[in-house]
Amino acid sequence: MQAKMSFSGNNTWRGLLIGFVPLALLVVIVVIALTVTALIRQLFDQSGFFVVQQAALITLIAGLVIALVIFVVAIVLTLRRVTAWQQIGAMKSSRAALWALGLTAFMVILPVIVAFVLPQNPAP
Amino acid sequence: MSSRPESLAKSTFNDKTSPIKANRGLRRIVVVLLIISTVLTVFYGAISLYISTQLVYAPQKPIYATPASLGLQFQYVTFPSRVDHVQLRGWFIPGVLPNGKLTTQRAIVFVHGTRTNRADKAAGLLDLSGAIAKNGFAVLAFDMRGSGESPPAPLSLGYFEQRDVLGAVDFLQSGPLPYPALGRPRIIGGWGVSMGAATLVMATAQEPAIRAIVSDCAYADIIPILEREVPKGGHLPGLFTPGALLLTQALFGVNFYADRPVDYVAQIAPRPILFIHGADDHYIPPVNMDILAAAARSAHNAHVQTWSVPGADHAQSFNTQGKVYVDRIITFYTAALGPDSGAA
Fold first, then answer.
1. What pTM did the predictor assign?
2. How many angstroms separate the CA of residue B12 from the nearest CA in chain A?
3. For residues A88 and B20, which has the higher predicted lDDT (pLDDT)?
4. Which positions in chain B touch A45 (Cβ < 8 Å)?
């Protein structure tokens, strides 16, 4: 009984951990992209505004595109694993991973929600 | 009897399939949520990124005339901003005393507004700087970064431009000034309009060498102005404004949330401030002057004057009042900076 409970607990945690991998990757790559953009800006600081603008823009967009691609690939892989868990009857793992992915969807849209509900006081 | 194993098998089958079905339903919901959230966030980020690039750039306007057109002597000058050493271009106009002698004893740093230059025709900057020079005050009128003849730079609405004003003060105090025979200015004042006024307030709070300032239609805090102007300019809802402002910081290092002269203005005391604002200002509402004046007066030794100019729209107080405006600020500067000794 103890072994069974321990096993099912592990399954849930494993599902959660796997389910949060896409979000973790997204956050890490976005942070790296922002840091590299700041470094590039410093590096090209003496080269004039237009060079700095181009370099920073290219770096940030490239970083965000890479983050997006890796995020999508990670989600596809996680969903495949969820399918595999479902096929072998590891329902707790699959359900936990799906809840983690659902939370990931919420975290991804959170900045837009915050921007939407953030109080603004535009000048008349 | 024979139906018992069948029903048992059916029951066992349902027990296994219902969680699978439930998980499949959950999976579909999660996939849809992930697609919607990713698409919306990418769309939001892309629009915000575009706005942020538009926000910090404006084509530089050429200088349309020089002080020579007003019959004044002047010299072109170039000096570095403080901290980041952006080479700024301007002109130095010596003051003219009633006896016709030139003087540089009292110098006024002239700070123009956003998306214009040191000669700003719409606000009458060249005429005003000429009028001040003709009243015995030397004028250092210069283009802030990204304006006029100074190098292109992101428009930060005062965040970086403060360094330009501080660079102008450094130049007056220790730079290679023209007219060496006239000596260095004994005392320095400042005049600014719109973004220039807000920038001047923030710079003066850091630089005690600026002994008095005239702030014409400054904003107390840029964020409410941006929260109105960004959606208006892009014909987009206001929710894109915070994203655009944050991306401006990521891309250009510009923190618009720090452009709050209201947080700095009390540090200027006991040095005198004259706040001027057009009563019909539709761009930066006149209440901004009240907010700034109240904040400035919160210092126990503050010397603050205010002038609400009837009928004047944004940056039009000088054009509306003309000689009355000049007389008022000359009286203020003379009281705050003292008289010219008349000796070169």
1. 0.88
2. 14
3. A88
4. 84
List CB contacts (< 8 A) between A118 and chain B.
Answer: 239, 242
**Do you find a cis peptide bond into B19, omega within 30 degrees of 0?**
no
What is the residue type of A122? Answer: P
CB pairs A-B closer than 8 Å: 119
Question: Does an H or E element contain B216, and which?
Answer: strand B210-216
Q: What is the pLDDT of residues B136-191, one digit of tens each?
A: 999 999 999 999 999 999 999 999 999 999 999 999 999 999 999 999 999 999 99
Q: Given a cut of 70, is residue A66 above it in pLDDT?
A: yes
Contact A57 B53 (CB under 8 A): yes
Query: What's the pLDDT score for residue A87?
Result: 87
Cα separation values, A83 from A89, B29, B274, Å: 10, 14, 71
Task: Report pLDDT digits (tens) over B47-57.
Answer: 999 999 999 98
Identify the residue whose tokens are 């510009």.
B254
Instruction: Give me the phi and psi of B171, to 5 degrees please.
Output: -65, -45
Q: Which of A48, A56, A109 sits opposite B41 (nearest CB)?
A: A109
Torsion of CA B23, B24, B25, B30, to 10 degrees: 90
Could you give the ipTM of this predicted complex? 0.88
* Cα radius of gyration (chain B): 29
Tokens of B216: 């014409």
What is the amino acid identity at position A83? T
What's the residue count for chain A? 124
Chain A: nearest CA to B19, how far in angstroms?
7
- Summarised one tens digit per residue, pLDDT across range B179-195 is 999 999 999 999 999 99
Chain B closest-CA separation from residue A101 CA (Å): 7
